[in-house]
Predict the 3D structure of the following.
Amino acid sequence: MADKKIAITTPFIKLDNFLKFAGVCSTGGEAKIVIKDEQVTVGGETCIMRGKKLYPGDTIEVGGQFFTVEDSPR
């Protein structure tokens, strides 16, 4: 399955905010649980840090969904 590309307009986005922005989670509390339960990988590695900074080029996988952070054209 192809990655869904998510464009950000800031230099980075924190993991919990990314999950909400990408539509994976509807609330911050839900994002916190998904991350804490080790259901998220960043760059192929399990990540349990809610505040992990994601930059353009980073890849995220959650529940079989794959995402790539992209820099938004300015």
Summary: The mean pLDDT is 94. The chain has two helices and seven strands. The two ends are 28 Å apart (CA to CA).
